[in-house]
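Field notebook, page 152. I keep forgetting to write these up properly, so this time I am using the form the group agreed on. The chain and the ligand, nickel (II) ion, are recorded exactly as supplied. Prediction of the bound pose follows.
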Amino acid sequence: MSDVEKGTGIKFGVYISKDLIEELDKIMLNSGIKNRSKLIQEALRLYIIENKWISLKEVAGSISILYNHSAGDIDEKLTDIQHTFRDIIVSSMHIHLDERTCMLVIAVKGESQRIKEFLINIRKLRGVLLVRHSLLTAQSKAMGIEQGKSVI
Ligand code: NI
């Protein structure tokens, strides 16, 4: 019996563009997930996990920035922003991907509001191609994890 039949879920109409559906169907073929509803539920769960950090007080993790280093003075601006936010930046790593594209991986730890501000400033820069973050709570108690105990 499905969630709809059990009455544990709701059904609603959502518009999804053709190219997005084609991409989703390709993922469905390779993932073993049998229908679009299940795939979209899985995608929504990941989206919720990815955005949960905003409601947490203190978080830690990494921010990956893909950018075109030939766009204006982007390297200088990225350095300036990192100096402004040095209170949350633990370390950074620069990878030269090709002639023009660079990846900056920044380890952060601190107040989620401050990290949110940092992300907003980075996304505003001309030449930034993609920003991805992976942030978790910095307080193990908030996740119900006892110190020293494995969660996997
Ligand atoms: Ni580079």
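OBSERVATIONS:
- The chain has two domains: 18-52, 56-137.
- The CA atoms of residues 88 and 115 lie 7 Å apart.
FOLLOW-UP: compare against the apo run.
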